[in-house]
Amino acid sequence: MIEGGTNLYAQYEALSVTKSMTFDGGSTKQVYYAESKQYMPDRELTPFTLQPVIIISDPDGIIPTGDKAGSLSAVRWFVGSTDAANQITSLNPDYTLGAKGALIVHKNVPQESPLTLIFEGEFYDTRRMSSVFIDMAVQLTTTSNAESAAGPTLSIDRPRA
Questions:
Q1: What angle do CA 54, 117, 147 make, to 5 degrees?
Q2: Is 50 exposed, middle or buried (0-12, 13-18, 19+ CB in 10 A)?
Q3: Which residues contact 31 (CB under 8 A, 6 or more apart)?
């Protein structure tokens, strides 16, 4: 029998969180050529991937430092605001939800309607038995350019035989 037991409490330093986004298949900016009605790049042909990078560093050295995007829970993407009605789901044909929190965009963005994509996720801190909330926003925009006049052409006439 143990008498006069003592409660022990461990105190841990806060995790350091560095967040960024990598892009594959283009950039956050598109150009729309009105005369030919074409987007460059055309995300319907070449989808644009946004991949969160979440570097977690533990000053106490218990959790190994590294990219924890694949370890996040409650990963969500939204368009415009974090209202539930704006959450991107697998039913939306303009987007594909990928591995490690990635979002693949299959939609061109009209010049008059810039698009804000919001990422949310949670990292579970096993030391403190609590979740760390992580969020980021990325804006997709389009500029319009007039196409220049067609360049010179070369044609060859040859006599009929």
A1: 120
A2: buried
A3: 39, 40, 142, 143, 144, 145
